[in-house]
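User: For documentation purposes, I need each entry recorded in a consistent format: the amino acid sequence on its own, followed directly by the corresponding C-alpha cells. There are two entries in this batch. Please keep commentary to a minimum and don't merge the entries.

Assistant: Recorded as requested. Entry 1:
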Amino acid sequence: MKPIYDGPPDGLLERLGRPGEYPYTRGVYPRMYSQGRLWTMRQYAGFGTAEASNERYRFLLEQGVAGLSVAFDLPTQLGLDPDDPLAAGEVGRVGVSIATVDDMRTLFRGIPLDRVTTSMTINAPAMMLLALYQLVAEDQGVSPAALGGTVQNDILKEYVARGTYIFPTGPSMRLVTDLFAYCAEHLPSWNTISISGYHIREAGASAAQEVAFTLANARAYVRAAVDAGLEVDGFAPRLSFFFACHSRLFEEVAKFRAARRMWAAMMRDEFGAQDPKSWMLRFHTQTGGSTLTAQQPENNVVRTAYQALAAVLGGTQSLHTNALDEALGLPTPSSARLALRTQQILAHETGVPDAIDPLGGSYYVEHLTDALEAEARALLGRIEDLGGAVAAIEAGYIQREIEESAYRQQRAVEDGEQVVVGVNRFRDDSDAAEVPVQQIDPQLQSRRAAELRSFRERRDGAAASAALASLSEAARGDANLFPRVLEAFRARATLGEVAGTLRREWGEYG
C-alpha cells in the first residue's frame, strides 16, 4: 500500500463502465439510491417462540424496517424437532424454534406476506422452510407468485464455515437445484439462494478470500443447475448474494465493486447468459459480527455505523446493522431500534445516497478494486485446478485457507499489530456500562415438546405417514422434491419428520 495514488490505473474507464451497465463495477442500477430508491433496511431477528418473534417483527415494522429477516434456532437449522434429544439445550437460543406449519402461522400472524419481503437464514432445510412459508401465504390468500424474499439455501459454505449441514454434498446440491426449478415456475419473484460470503468472512477469511470462495460456490451452483437441465437465464436473475462488511472502509467498498465485476464476466463469458439481469450481482450486507467486542460494547455502535457507510458506498441492495449488545447476547428491543436508527440516519441525514458510486474514479479505491480482483481471481484459479468448489471443499483446501487467515488475524491482534479499541489498546474497564441482555425462558424446550405432542395427537397420522412415504420414494428417484415436501407439511408432518425421512434415504455428511 502506498500513501498516495497519483493517477488512475491503466484501462480504468473500460473496466468501470457506467452505473447500471456491464460490468456493473459502479452499481447494478443506473440511479442507485439517488432518486429515493434506498436499500432495503432489514433487522435480523428471531428468538425463543414464534409468538415472541412475531412480537419483535411487529415492533421492527413499526420502527420502519422494510423487510423481515428470520433467525432460526440451531435445531431448526439442522432439521430437528424440539423434542429430539440432539436439540437439548439449544431450543430457541439463537433464533426462533419452528417445527410445524402451525409454528410458521404464528410467526407471521398479522403480517401480510404480499406486502413485506422476508429473508430466511436457512440452508440444509431451506426447501422445507420455504414450503411452510408458502402454506402460510395460502392461508392468507396470497398467491405464491406474489411472494418476495430470499432463502439462504447456500449449503456449500456450511461445509467450510458454519457447520449447519445435514446431508452429503450430492443430495444437498439436488435440494438447491430442485428449489431453483420449483421457484422459477411457481415463485418467480423469490430469490432462490443467497450465496454467502458473510460466514466465510466471519470465520476468518480475508476480503479477497471472501469474494473468491463465494464466487467459487456460486459457480458450482450454476453448473449444478445447468447440469440438471435448467436454462441459465431462467434461474440466474433470482440468484442473490450476502456479504459481510468489516471496518476497513475503502477495502470493503472495493470488495463489493470487484465482486460485481467478476460475477458479470463469469455469467456472460463463461455461462453464456444473455439476460443482463443474469449478470447483476445483487447483494445483502450485514455489518461484521466478529468485529463486535464484549469490552466497551458502546464502541460497537460506532463500528457498525462505519461499516454501514461502507456497505452503502459499495452499493448494497439491502442491509442489516448489528446491535451493540450482540457480543453478549441476542439484541434487546432498544438495541435493535438503535441499530435500525443507524441505517435511517445514514439514509436521511448524511446525503450519502444522493450520489451514484461516489468513490468511483478515486485513484486509491480503483487501485484496491483491481488488487482485490486480481487476488480473488488467483484463488479462483486454484480452486478450478482442484476441480471446482465441491472438490476443493472435500479436499479441505478452502477450510485450510480460512483457518490460516483466521490464525494470522488473531496473532496480529494478540501481538498488537492490529488495534482493537478497548481490547488491546485504550482499555478502561473502570467505567464499563452494564448492558441488558435478552433472556430466553429456560423452560422453553419442555413447553415446545409439549406443543409438539399436542400437534401430533390432533393430526391425521395416517395421512402424514403416507405423505412421508411418498417423499421417501421420490428421494430415491430424480423427481423434483419440492412438491412432495409441500404435501408432507400440508398433511401436518413436522420438520424433523421430513428431514428425518431424507436422512434415512441419503445419510448424513461427515
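Entry 2:
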Amino acid sequence: MITMYGIPNCNTIKKAKDALTAKGIEFVFHNYKKDGIDEKTLEAWCSQVGWKTLLNQRGTTWRKLSADDKDGINQSKSIQLMAVYPSMIKRPVLDTGEKIIVGFNEEEYAAL
C-alpha cells in the first residue's frame, strides 16, 4: 500500500492526491500534524534520499528557527528538527513500499 505523508492544507499535497486519485491509485494519507513522525522513519528516508532532499530550508518553519538550530546543520540535527517540526519536511513524501519519492513531480507520479 502506498502512503503519502504531509499536511492536508498544503497545495502541493492536494495536487499529489489529485494525481494519484485520477490514475485510480489507492493510498493512505499520513497527516504529520495529527499523527506526527518518528525519528526512525526519518532516518530510513534520509538513508534513501538524503537529509538535504528531505529538509525544506525554504519554508517559514525553517526561517523562524534560531541561529543556534540552523548552525552546523547535519543529518542527525535535521532529523531531530523534522521530528519536532514536521512542517520542515518537504511535501509530499510518498512511500511506495519500494522507494521514497520526495516532492510532487507529475512525470514521476505518472510512472507509478
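Summary note for entry 2:
The CA atoms of residues 100 and 111 lie 14 Å apart.
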